[in-house]
Amino acid sequence: MKTIETKLKNQKIINIVLALGLTALMVNNLIGMPKTVDFEHITVKSLKVLEANGLARIVIANSEYSPQGMYKGKEFVDVGSRPGMIFYNDEGTENGGLIFMGKKKDGKVSHGVHMSFDRYNQDQTMTLQHIEDGDYMVTGMRIIDRSDLPLAEQIALEKAAKNGDIQAKSQLESLEKQGKLSANDRAFYGTLNGDSMLKLSDKQGQTRIRMVVDKTGVAKLEFLDSTGKIIQTLPDNNKNN
């Protein structure tokens, strides 16, 4: 028995020495790795550019590894699959990105390319996009008003209210009255289903000026009131009637 115990003890010592040796070798290799490595080709499913503090600055990923909504370095909402490139600010919070997808299924096209720029701690305030969905097609730039309420806080309140939190529900109602939950379009320039247009809207998101050259080549300029009623059209086709 003593002989077997001695052999086991010796084997343990050998294992420890081997483990220490392998660890030292790995550390030496890591220390000796060059800071810059040149590649001719690199194939990845996800690529992250990090700051020195470990926070993400840019994430490029496929559908499977596309990142969720990030706020100060932590996930806070499931935004689904969005292959492309996502940008982050100095605090590790998402502040824009470029996403793209497209396919044809059962004869129907579903295609989109979308680049956005976000307000600080909020959602997109400017977008450049092209979207095709069946008979619907839009290409253009949108400008959107957002409140200064952090999006992560809004979503947290909405989740709490949904789970029966009375205080969270009350806070949401108060924020709604203050206009803190709204996202209103202020301007659009582009084409929509064949019509070329420029739309300018008020703070409530109501279109007040609309300049259009439709798909048949007819041009017009419309002025609308705060309820959406057209109050003047140029040219005035009823002028001589």
Radius of gyration: 28 Å
Strand numbers in spatial order across the main sheet? 1-2-5-6-7-8-9-10-11-12-13-14
**Helix content bin:** 10-25%
Return the average pLDDT rounded to an integer.
90
Shape: elongated
The proportion of residues in beta strands is 35-45%
What is the first-to-last residue Cα distance?
118 Å
Major pleated sheet? 12 strands, antiparallel
Number of strands: 14
Helix-strand string: HEEEEEEEEEHHEEEEE
Describe the structure.
- The protein has three helices and 14 strands.
- It has 241 residues and is an alpha+beta fold.
- Among the domains are: 35 residues; 48 residues.
- The strands form two sheets. The protein has a twelve-stranded antiparallel β-sheet with strand order 1-2-5-6-7-8-9-10-11-12-13-14, with no helix packed on it. The chain has a two-stranded antiparallel ribbon with strand order 3-4.
- A hairpin with a 5-residue loop joins strand 5 and strand 6.
- Helix 2 crosses helix 3.
- The protein is elongated.
